[in-house]
Amino acid sequence: MAFKIIRNNIINVSADAIVNTANPKPTYASGVDSAIYKAAGARKLLKERKKIGDIEPGCAVSTPAFKLSAKYIIHTVGPEWKGGDAGEHETVKNCYINSLNLAKELGCESIAFPLIATGIYGFPKEDALRIAINVFSEFLIDSDMEITLVVFDEKSFVLSDKIFAGVEAYIDDNYVTKKVYEEYETEGETRTLLGDLPYRPDSRYFGAASRAKASSQGAFPIYASRSASMSESVLPQEDKAVHMSLDDKVAHIKDTWQESLFQLIDERGYTDIEVYKRANVDRKLFSKIRSNSAYQPKKITALAFALALRLNLDETKDFLSRAGYALSPSSMFDLIVEYFIEQEVYDIYTINMALFKHEQQLLGD
Fold this sequence. Notes:
Blueprint: E1 3-7, E2 17-21, H1 31-40, H2 42-52, E3 60-64, E4 72-76, H3 88-105, E5 110-113, H4 125-142, E6 146-151, H5 161-164, H6 167-174, H7 176-184, E7 185-186, E8 189-190, H8 208-216, H9 228-233, H10 246-251, H11 257-267, H12 272-278, H13 283-290, H14 299-308, H15 313-321, H16 332-342, H17 348-357
Parallel strand pairs: 1-6, 2-4, 2-5, 5-6
Antiparallel strand pairs: 3-4, 7-8
Helix pairs in contact: 1-2, 3-4, 6-16, 12-14, 14-15
C-alpha cells in the first residue's frame, strides 16, 4: 500500500526510515524524541547526532537507526507553536517534504512519520494531519514509497468537522436495523432473513428514528424466523415465461471487473498512473491486474478503483457487482464509503482517515 495510517508507538514500526521530531540542539528531550533515542540506543545515537550539530527548523538529516527496526532515523525539527502567524505551518510542511526527499535520496522504499511537532511544541494536531496528508498525496504522484503515518492514541487523531461532520449521522441513519425496518416490515410483523434466532438490535448503531419507533412500542421487537410464508410475503413471484435459457444468459455475459476497469479508464481519459495512484495501490499490483482479464480483486481494492475512477453510487454498485461484491447497509465500512461517494468526495486519503477513526480496514492494496 502506498499510504496507510496505524495506531502504534513509532519505535515499534518496521520501515526503512523512521522520522523523529528532533531537538534543534544535539541532545534529546521528552516525547517521541526521547522514546526513539532510548529504543535505538541513546549513547550511540547521541554520538552520531553530535557530529551533525544544530538543525534548523524545517530541515532534515539522517543517522543510522541502530537498534530500531529501520535503516535510518531522519531527524527533522518542527516549530514551536506561537499562534500560527510565525510561519509554523510552512515549517511543518517543510519537515514532511524534506524528510521524504531525504528518504528518497537514501534509497528508502518505506518511511514512518509521527504527527510532527504536535507534542511538546504544541502544533495543532488537526493542522499537522491536514499538512501531512496533502504532502503525502503530492509526493506519491511521482514517487513510489510506502508511507506510514503513526498516531499514538485517539487524542492524536483529530478529524475536521468541516469534512467529517455528516459521517456519524449518516451511519446512524443508515445502519442495519433501520434498513431491516424499512425493507422487511410487513403489516405489523417484522420478518428477517437472519435465521431462526431472535434478533435484538444493538442500540449503539440503531438509527435515531428507529430507536424512537421501537421505544414507542415499549420494547425492541423480536423478528420472526424464516418460514414458508417468507417466500410469499417477501420474495417476489417470478414469471417463468420470461426466464432466459442458460445458453442465453452465457451469451449475454457482461465484461469482467478487469475489463470494465480498463474500459472506464479509457472512456474517462485517465492515465493508468493517475488511476492506480488515486486508488492507493502500487505499480506491481496494477501490472498484475492489467495482465489478467480474470483478476479477482479484494473488495477494498475494487472500491478503491471505483473512487479513483470517480464513479457515482449507481456506477460503483455496478462496478463492484462485476467482482461479485455489493454495498451492504449492515456494514459500517460500506456506509462510510457510500457517504463520501454521495458527497462526491473521492480523495482516498480523506476517506481512509474516516475509516481509520471508525476502526475499519483502509482502502487500497
